[in-house]
Design goal:
five-stranded mixed β-sheet, 21% strand, metal-binding
Amino acid sequence: MKARTNLAISLCAALCLWAPGAWAADLVVSAASSLTNAFRAVAERYEKEHPDTRVVLNFGASDVLMQQIVQGAPADVFASADQRAMDKAAAEAVIVPASRRDFASNALVLVVPADSRLEIAKPQDLTRPAVRRVAFGNPGAVPVGRYTRDALAAAGLWDAVSAKGVPAQNVRQALAYVARGEVDAGFVFATDAATVPDSVKIAARIPTTTPVTYPIALTARARNTPAASGFVAFVLSAEGQAILARHGFGRP
């Protein structure tokens, strides 16, 4: 009997140590990296209006977050930086289709280090020999990378620019490469560029083949559906939209 009791205690302790802290949270929101600043402000305001709810934010590349949810990671809400990542989530049946809504828009921009002496004013300038390294998100996993690839392909520049490519795991990493002067230029969202105005400057606004829109949805495995629904409603509300606008996001 004593041996069984000790075994039970050991198993319980092991499970407690193994369980991710996020499982104990009131509300887990997995959101695209480009939403970092805006969603921190949204979550802060939401918590003030809902003191019984604690919001845990998980930021990353949209496709990576989607795969995390597919593999069982805790998440009540998923916010993606493009429609394709959300489409994949829908195909994997990890979101509630009826809850899907577009909540923001953005723009793709070409940025260079603030102290750059290269005359880069348009994507075509990236093909010059003086430009050696260009950062952009990995198109296979990062929405900003897909927007970049599609825009450059439409302009007949993808092969030439991608040959100089420095793929990033998410848009914030691409931004960091440019801000630190590790690359000559990079493609990021306008809202990301605005977070470090002293380190990067926008060289050009890039037309995209599809609008840069952000969808949000409840996950099919939401542990706190009422709070998740409330958070999505807040993001879509006038107050939530005003917070997003202050961080440079447009309406969907």
